[in-house]
Amino acid sequence: MDTLLSLRVFAEVAEHKNFSAVAERLNISPAMTSKHVKHVEARVGARLLNRNSRNVSLTEAGARYLLTIRPLLDGLAEAEAQLTTDSLSPRGTLKMSMPVWMANPAFAKILTAYHQQNPHVTFDIDLSGRKINMVEEGIDLALRVAFKLDDGLIARKLAEVTFQLVAAPAFLDSFGRPKTPENLINAPMLAYSQVAADGRIKFGGEKGVDIKLRPILVSSNESILHQAAVAGMGFAMLPNWVAQDDVKDGRLEVVLPMVEWPNLHIQAIYADRSYLPAKVRSFLDFLAGPDGFTAVLK
């Protein structure tokens, strides 16, 4: 059998988790699709896919193998494209995962500006806030401020995000406006589970001091924390570019504005590979450039 074709079939099945859909996509029979996958498994001497009448999923060995061959297949596709075009331009679907709080007008402007320069790239964005398996789910790029880096992935710092403590004016009228960080001890907090699920936050920089608030709402979805803060439920630590419009319009107040609250880095997480598809590489460079995060965070 054509081993290169078999590798492509395996990669397609691994990412789409459906033999029939891949068979139709590649214009081959489902039986032949299965034969190609078995051919690859026979060559490597390991079971790469778990499959039954309903589900297809990668085995641990299959996930590692896909991570190895995916950049090789992408590189071959790009090399072939170079033979038929004068210059290679980014194209295809860029599948991304990012925090819910990045679904805002500022980041929408970044996407729009990039797309205007690269009209052949489309976006498929996951905003669920859940932990993802980038290999199994075929995610090209994840943007995170809090994460645990899995094997086979690397992180690139893109920008620093300043956080600020905010609350609704009506809530502060009732609770009182803190004069010092110590006034916040045991205060009701809307806590982001990925960073401060226990309500503990640090002030004063790297050598600062922890204070413990009282979580009354804990979620990995930053949007609900934001909306609860506007509704007057409690204190919330939000990125400044998320809260700035509410502060400007009086729906939120910045609490203790002179205090140095934590700063976190937005980082791009992607497969550790010597070759990156043009769509990924160009978008990373755009985010790090003058029209990316620099433009919206200044």
Give descriptors for this structure:
Arc Repressor Mutant, subunit A; D-Maltodextrin-Binding Protein, domain 2; 3 domains; nine-stranded mixed beta sheet; 13 strands
Q: Summary?
A:
Helices cover 42% and strands 24% of the residues. By secondary structure, it is an alpha/beta fold.
Topology overview:
Elements (H helix, E strand, L loop, with lengths): L2 H14 L2 H8 L3 H15 L4 E3 L4 E3 L1 H25 L7 E6 L7 H13 L3 E6 L7 H4 L3 E4 L8 E15 L1 H7 L12 E5 H4 L3 E4 L5 E4 L1 E6 L2 H10 L3 E5 H9 L4 E2 L8 E9 L6 H11 L4 H5 L1
Parallel strand pairs: 3-4, 3-5, 7-10, 7-11
Antiparallel strand pairs: 1-2, 5-13, 6-11, 6-12, 6-13, 8-9
Helix pairs in contact: 1-2, 1-3, 1-4, 2-3
CATH architecture descriptor name of the largest domain: 3-Layer(aba) Sandwich
**Distance between the first and last residues' Cα:** 56 Å
What name is given to the CATH topology of the largest domain?
A: D-Maltodextrin-Binding Protein, domain 2
Tally of alpha and pi helices: 12
Task: Quickly give the structural class.
Answer: alpha/beta
pLDDT averaged over residues: 84
Rounded to the nearest angstrom, the radius of gyration is: 23 Å
Per CATH, the class of the largest domain reads: Alpha Beta
The total strand number stands at: 13
Order of helices and strands: HHHEEHEHEHEEHEHEEEHEHEEHH
> Structurally, how many domains make up the residues?
3
Measured as a percent range, the helix fraction is 40-55%
Name the CATH superfamily classification of the largest domain: Periplasmic binding protein-like II
Descriptive report:
- The structure is a single chain.
- By secondary structure, the chain is of the alpha/beta class.
- It folds into three domains: 3-84, Winged helix-like DNA-binding domain superfamily/Winged helix DNA-binding domain (Arc Repressor Mutant, subunit A, Orthogonal Bundle); 92-157 and 265-297, Periplasmic binding protein-like II (D-Maltodextrin-Binding Protein, domain 2, 3-Layer(aba) Sandwich); 160-264, Periplasmic binding protein-like II (D-Maltodextrin-Binding Protein, domain 2, 3-Layer(aba) Sandwich), CATH 3.40.190.10.
- Helix content is 42%, strand content 24%.
- It contains twelve helices and 13 strands.
- The strands form three sheets. Strands 3, 4, 5, 6, 7, 10, 11, 12 and 13 form a nine-stranded mixed β-sheet that branches.
- Helix 2 packs across helix 3.
- The longest helix has 25 residues, at 60-84.
- The mean pLDDT is 84.
